[in-house]
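Structure tokens please, single chain.
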Amino acid sequence: MMNRLISTDSLTREAYVSDWRNTYHHFLTEYEGSHVSFIPELLPEFATKFDVFQVLDILQKRLGTETLLRALNPNETIASPLAENNDSQWLKKSNMVGVNIRTIGSFWNVVGYALTLPNFHDSIHLLPIWEPGVVGSLYGKVSWNINGEFYSWQLQQAIPWLDNVEKQLKVVVNVLHALGKTVGLDVIPHTDRFSEIVLIHPLLFEWVRRDGGQLIDHSENVWQEVEEIIWQQLHLIGTADGSWLTYAKEVLFDPDIPLLSDKKRQEVLFGFDQQQRLYRRLTLMQILVNQGYETLPMTMAPPYRGLHINPDVSIIDERGTPWYQYEFDHPQAMSRVFGPLTRYRFYHSKNNNQEWELDFDRPNLAAWHYFTRKYHECQQQFNFDFMRGDMAHVQMRADGVPVKTNAFYDPLCAVKKYVQHHGAPHFAFYAETFIAPPDVMGYGNELDHLEAIGADATLGDLQASIVGEPIFMERFAEYDQLLRTRRFAPSFTIITADKDDPRFDEFYQTGNLVRYFIGLFLTDMPSYYSLGFEVRNRHEERDKNEKYTKLYVFQIHDDAETDKVTHGPFEWGENMQQFQDLTHLRLFAESIWKEIADQEIRWILPPDATAKNKLIAWTQANQPTYIFVANLDSEHEAELKKVPLKGYQLVFETAQTLKDKKCMASSSGRVYKIKS
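Here you go.
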């Protein structure tokens, strides 16, 4: 294991930076010579701000000139490190890192960040990559265009042929593949309520008509009236690209009619440059809204359906347009309405939607075909390895999960299968579900739903609890059982982008290092953490908004929204102690990884669901060489005596200052190795 060169006493950021400048040549040499799989002690803040030529120089020495030149050619495709896999089982043991590109500025900066990630962090999940809509939400996509704000001018100046954001994303995935990482995208079953997608294909979404604050029509075919209004408007003001409308209306709007490509449809309705497209989109939106037409907002959790407008609650936008708040007729505990978003209309309705019932035996085939085809096109263009399925917990059938499902049970499942069947059998599915009790986030048993949709791994909710507290121990024990009894793998989740939020500070004020220790060394369980965790401040008091990555999922600059507004770029934490401890742990893990990677574990002291014992211990199921022990705030040090340590020696401890080896510090981890 490489010896640490930066003093562990240098806990201020300024002192750390000074020490790094004196030692970074050594670290770079070790990395460039493939002696280590990451650049130790390199703060991610620095790595994501490296000069383009500095990164290229590092990559050339690491990968070789030929491989790098291929990776930097957007017409070339560097194969995934898992391209030869015939299935997606690999995701069940992956240690994933989530990256909100907006926090680091561009796709290219993901490459710099990857230089700080050891090889055991083998997967990088990119939060949504498309043009955003209302309040700049990454999850409220407007089109299938890649988000231009993630373009790097510095990269284009260094490499002139990388002159658009699509080319830059392609070469970034190429480079990450060359570095041994898999790369995933978000698959989102919704869009902005007045996205270009909604206006190009009204038949794919659910439309309603209101009169002021009263909902007057939510029948099945309101979308046909919307199509006619847009069609007549095109005849009135002309197409955006100057072409003639010499074809039938269905040719323009129906995605199953291939006479026009989606790109051509976009040009006809909206034009080419961003300003023209925005103007045309807002114009069409205003015309429709003035006549009372709008898409139905997306809902979460049962009962999903049955909405009305609250006429007393509305927001007036900068154009003077009122937006009314939708509410459930019969809300339940987790019922939510997401005003800025609308979901694809995957099913026709019963009885013309008079009772808000969907007919799950009549899928809206146009929506299924379009949704799966477009995500497959994106996967193919950029060579993604896996998908994070957003809102994968959605299960709208009031009778619960069917005993037998068909091809139209779930759209996220359909995307996975479509991509796998069209040339990428290794393409995996990471589901955004929280392993909630039955009928809470979706109708029926969420565990059955996860198996029915073919999820390889799922997020879970360990990140939303304090290490060692009863709810944490209960969930941990449950997830371990699910890992060994179900066809999907729950994650040991450390922190996610949606939990790096002031409301959840209490979860991460203690226990961060032991979270990471467990997530890393439970080699048969996947793990997940988000960029920024490495140096995240403890936030014992609420910090300013710019310190939280969650608030960069949006782009809110209205000072009235004080809880979410941000001024300027994301600001990294200054928790040098956590970063140094993390680096120390990573260097040790690097030294033993080949011996333990992907191995099934055997519990010595399993997680105790009652939280009476908070000491856990495990080893390898086959040929045990190492014993891992983690203390999750246990006061029962006698439990350590139950671990069979005879013949083993202590080789690593997260709490380096502890002198008494007969007990362990709370929220700490130890590794013992069998004596040779």
